[in-house]
Amino acid sequence: MARPRACGRPVVLHFFATWCEPCRAELPLLAAFADRRDDLITFAIDVGEVDLRVKRFAAQVGWSRPVLLDRDRAVARAFGVTALPTTIVLDATSTPRLVAEGDLDWRDPTVTAPLVALATTTPDGRTPACTDATC
């Protein structure tokens, strides 16, 4: 499976489902965090549900970004996701760097600090820059 093209920015992949109670509480907090961070690319990925249910849920919790639909769970399997919610953070080179199973408090600096650090420096310590002509 091809990795998302980060274009010099870290990517947050957040796997969830509408029936998952911790997901219901966590997604609004992630939305608020993502809205403040234009140096991160954030994707919510619904695992195995129908479009209309996901669309309604996203509106209810205030998720205004696109939601990717993993209807057959192929993406979750490719990333080794076995529990919901699961968050995987890819660095600027699309290498998985952080994985968290279970819900996170996106208001907590101890949760967000590692993401912010990935967004402000590349693995070799440089400031991220888009070096790909497709960006």
TrEMBL record:
Domain Thioredoxin: 1-120
Keywords: Redox-active center
GO molecular function, one term: disulfide oxidoreductase activity
Gene3D superfamilies referenced in this protein's UniProt entry, alphabetically: Glutaredoxin
InterPro entries: AhpC/TSA (IPR000866), Thioredoxin-like_sf (IPR036249), Thioredoxin_CS (IPR017937), Thioredoxin_domain (IPR013766), Thioredoxin_ResA/DsbE_sf (IPR050553)
Pfam families noted in UniProt: AhpC-TSA (PF00578)
PROSITE patterns linked to this entry: THIOREDOXIN_1, THIOREDOXIN_2
Keyword Metal-binding in annotation: no
Protein name: Thioredoxin domain-containing protein
